[in-house]
Amino acid sequence: MSDIVYTARIELHGHIIDSLTLPRVFSAIMADGESDFEVEEFTIGRHKTDSSYARIAITTPHQSRLNELLDELRLVGAEVVDDTLAEFVEADLDGVFPDHFYATTNLQTSVRLADGWYEVHRQEMDCGLRLDPNSKQVECLPMHWVRRGDLIAVGKHGIRVVPLERARNRELFEFMGSTVSSEKPKKLLIDGIANEIREIKAHGGKVLLVAGPAIIHTGVGVYLSEIITAGYIDVLFAGNALALHDLENAVYGTSLGVSLLQGKNIEGGHEHHLRTVNTIRRHGSIRAAVEAGYITSGVMHDCVKHGVDFILAGSIRDDGPLPDVITDMIVAQDAMRKKIVGVKIAIMISTMLHSIATGNVLPADVKTVCVDINPATVTKLADRGSHQALGLVTDVESFLRELRNALVG
To answer: What is the value of pTM for the model shown?
Structure first.
């Protein structure tokens, strides 16, 4: 057996103990029976707000295994001391990354250039990294944005990520993140969400609501309207269904033909949503229908009246659809990317597909709350990379009623 060993050194910075970065590093090294480590320097923060530092030497008998291990450790926040610079190569086709391109996460990322580390702009998962050689700006870009000649990062050398850190205080989001369970004090949590929203608004941040049609079907659109009117929502992401059923209710008092006051099917009600979408299409847009006085109430009416930006992304099952619905999914994704600038908290209510789609474009530092009666919605969102998503398992009616009471009174 060869006595040759291969060595590399890594550094860890930040709250590496309570955020479990250090244990993850040790676990990854020890998982390989042939690899070993030595902690060469270790400084522990003396107070809860202080950062810690560790310098660790890793040895393995195989260079290939060392390279694999370093790639794994970069993903949990390790900085390789003698790492080479990030490598960029030109894309040879529009809409295609080069082979071996670096695939991003939603965690804040930096790349090492000749004169130091540069933070990546517009952080987003499942993208590549493009370098502007003149400004030295590096940004995430989705595959369809690639143009021939773009400089795209390849490999994992010279790239580091910042893992999510545990909250410094025993606050709402730490408590919510412990488990996905229906057995939590919901009013306490909703009051905490309301406080987060107020704090974010007070500091100029934006609030994003991702909403499913159950909000309208259950008759609680009125609570959402009050929250919008009070100025607590800046951006709305939804589909054709929420908007159309809300508009149907504004015109006929029904949602999919069911009276929201009487709770029963109305004769001929099955036609209401089609007649509504037809008339809105005749007006040309939801805004035009509101300004013409055809729509005088409801969620979409209040979005128009109070300057709330909305993106309606279509699906194969849509009736109509409404003229505001974006039917090209790539166009819809890009529209969502533009509207999340400045968003500090996202509230996702009763819409699995729109929640996952939104999670895909949000950076990990955006506080994200997923509200659904089905706990699988929350876990699926996290499984697809939105690890910052925290869940509240409850029905939409009680959530919006309590949130409205906490925000509006």
So the answer is: 0.85
